[in-house]
Write a structure and sequence with these properties.
The structure holds 2 protein chains of 2 kinds. Chain A is mostly beta strands. Chain A is built from 1 helix and 10 strands, in the order E-E-H-E-E-E-E-E-E-E-E. The radius of gyration of chain A is 18 Å and the shape is globular. Chain A starts with 6 loop residues before the first strand and ends with a strand. By secondary structure, chain B is mainly beta. Helices cover about 5% and strands about 45% of the residues of chain B. In chain B, strand 5 and strand 6 form a beta hairpin. Classes of the chains: A mainly beta, B mainly beta. Chains A and B meet through strand 3, strand 4, strand 7 and strand 10 of A and helix 1, strand 7, strand 8, strand 9 and strand 10 of B.
């Protein structure tokens, strides 16, 4: 078995140590809730659960090692005219997080009315450590 | 001549940090962009051949190597000009060769001096 502390492109143009593993996305997703909730393109996301309007839980195929991981989002606008009064975020509350090793919940909301909304396209990625 | 490694799992020299090569392939960002639209100037990028400055707050990164389709994940960020609460950076009109990006504050498009695009998905 060979073990390498560094990976290098032929010619030495690009090199990468073990920390490159930490930097890889462990999951990413594109899904819709427009007429029904459906995954359209994913990596390491097994399923999407419709919890209600604008409220969707995503479940990993291979779990994370705990609840401390980064979730970045590709926020959506209500339309393409530049409306900014909408927000996409990971569900949590002021004192605890709702993320688990196996699932997390994405919320899409109208800021002015606090109402949740469905949308044609949600995107995001997860960085952290797999179990 | 460049060599080709065919392995299922990568580990570091200590035998730790095991990772499947499938995670390396699927989990690697396929394009990144750090962009100043006010200049406009590409500050840093990966797999972005050029950026089309469409209009105030709207720009299209053009990929060097295209994505497999318009179905992929695109995360966005922008550094707001002021401490406005009504701020958004998002992507839409995704295509295999480009993606349209928008930055806005208080319901108005704005050119940010620092804005980010990260793309995950499958290359063509």
């Amino acid at each position: 078995m060979s073990k390498a502390a560094e990976l290098a492109e032929f010619g030495g143009g690009i090199s990468s140590g073990p920390n490159a593993v930490e930097g890889l996305a462990k999951a990413w997703y594109e899904y819709t809730t427009n007429t029904s909730t459906a995954l359209t393109k994913t990596f390491n996301i097994a399923s999407a659960t419709d919890n209600g309007t604008g409220d969707t839980s995503l479940t990993f195929t291979s779990n994370m090692d705990g609840t401390s991981y980064a979730a970045t989002l590709g926020p959506a606008s209500y339309n393409t005219s530049g409306n900014t009064s909408y927000s996409m975020f990971i569900k949590t509350d002021q004192t605890s997080k709702s993320k688990t090793a196996s699932t997390f919940t994405v919320i899409y909301a109208q800021i002015s009315s606090s109402g949740f909304l469905d949308h044609g396209e949600f995107m995001g990625a997860i960085n952290g450590d797999l179990a | 001549m460049a060599s080709e490694l065919r392995v299922n799992t990568l580990k570091d020299a200590s035998g730790n940090n095991s990772i499947a090569t499938s995670v390396v392939a699927s989990g690697s960002a396929k394009a990144t962009l750090f962009y100043n639209q006010a200049s406009p100037t590409v500050l840093d990028s990966y797999n972005v051949a050029s950026v089309t400055d469409v209009s105030t707050g709207v720009f299209d990164p053009q990929y060097t190597n295209n994505m497999g389709s318009g179905n992929y994940s695109c995360s966005r960020m922008g550094v707001a000009v002021a401490a406005n609460l009504d701020v958004v950076s998002y992507a839409y009109n995704k295509a295999a060769g480009s993606v349209r990006c928008y930055n806005g504050e208080n319901n108005a498009a704005i050119d940010y001096t620092q804005t980010d695009v990260v793309v995950f998905g499958d290359l063509a």
